[in-house]
Amino acid sequence: MMNTRKCGYRLTTDEPRSCRALSDGRVRLQLPEELGHCYSECVELEHGFLLGRLHYHPSRSLVEESNGPHAGRVIVVTVGLQGQSAYQGRESSDLLFKAGHTTVTAFRSLRGERHYQEDQSVSQLRLVISEAALNKYVGPERATQLMDCVGLHRLSFQASSQATMAHAAALARYMQPCSPEQPIHHHRLNLQIHALSLLAEQFNRLAPPNAAKGAPLSVDDIQRVERARDLLSSQLDQPITVEYLATTVGINEHKLKEGFRYLYDNTPIGLLLELRMRKAYTLLESGQQVAQAAWQVGYKYPNNFSVAFTRYFGRSPKSIFGNKRA
User: In angstroms, rounded to a whole number, what is the distance separating the alpha carbons of residues 15 and 31?
Assistant: First the structure.
């Protein structure tokens, strides 16, 4: 925690601050000029979801009283871009905000002090999301899991990932002053995308989705199963076996079958038959002879193909031949 005993100025909550809505859509809060170049800006992305950017360069050590009540619980993600600041709560809750680090907190109200060092620049990006807004994105169960706390609670403080810093840099760029001809709402889609991506990364670290825990296959397994399905589709004329598929994509046969059931509600051989029959139906409609269609979907003998086709569709291949041309 920074040493702020020799603070040059204490800014109480009662002291006036300049607050004004800018023409490009931002709301700017400015401290008195005699305290240095200190301001914060925010824009509401949607109801209950705020994006803010803070830049303080105080001319003297500064202690700013904080008393921020909210209608309900909120989560705040603070990405340190430059310098560092500290928060000291009245309930023995201390926080550090540092460049290259991301701090995630949950609370209903703030009663404490923010500390800034003399002649030191501090830049931070903040995302504030209410419980109601969070419910919409992650559901009530995960939202409660994240916000179930009394008072101020630090959920996470860790070095920012490359993805976090990339999203934060993009958000800070779109928060820069715009011309009247191009107000900030022209960038709202970009702001929303980067803000939600940044939130998703933090929340997935804090409370991974339950669905991921119960999934029978890993992401790598699913990709292998999808490649096996693509092989089936591209080699309908070949004698394909489960062993061949599993070996080609690098997965065991049991997991391959499990994956096909999980993703396609079918077995590999069952899906192969389905793909062959659909392809054959299209070929017959386009005017190809039964023997030609049979050969292109892996049947050497037209009679065997006719039996399989009739069993699958309840109609003979000859009844389909050339129908599309009509």
Answer: 10
Contact indicator for 89, 110 with CB cutoff of 8 Å:
yes
DSSP collapsed to 3 states, 309-324: HHHHHCCCHHHCCCHH
CB 202 within 8 A of CB 156: yes
Higher confidence at residue 212 or residue 119?
119
- CB contact at 8 A, 154 and 103: yes
pLDDT over 90 (residue 269): yes
Interior CA angle at 73 toward 71 and 75, to 5°? Answer: 125
Is it the case that residue 326 has pLDDT exceeding 60? no
Nearest to 13 by CA among 111, 152, 117, 94: 111
Contact yes or no for 53/70 (Cβ under 8 A): no
Cα separations in angstroms, 193 against 41, 49, 81, 245, 325: 19, 13, 20, 38, 47
pTM of model > 0.85: no
Tens of pLDDT along 32-61? Answer: 999 999 999 998 889 999 999 999 999 999
Which DSSP symbol is given to 160? P
Give the pLDDT of residue 69: 56
**E strand residue ranges, 26-151:** 27-30, 36-46, 49-58, 62-67, 74-82, 84-89, 94-98, 101-107, 111-116, 122-130
Instruction: Phi first, then psi: give them for residue 212, nearest 5 degrees.
Output: -65, -35
SS3 233: helix
d(CA 106, CA 119): 30
Task: Determine the Cα–Cα distance for residues 7 and 39; give it in Å rounded to an integer.
Answer: 19
Token digits of residue 245: 């598929």
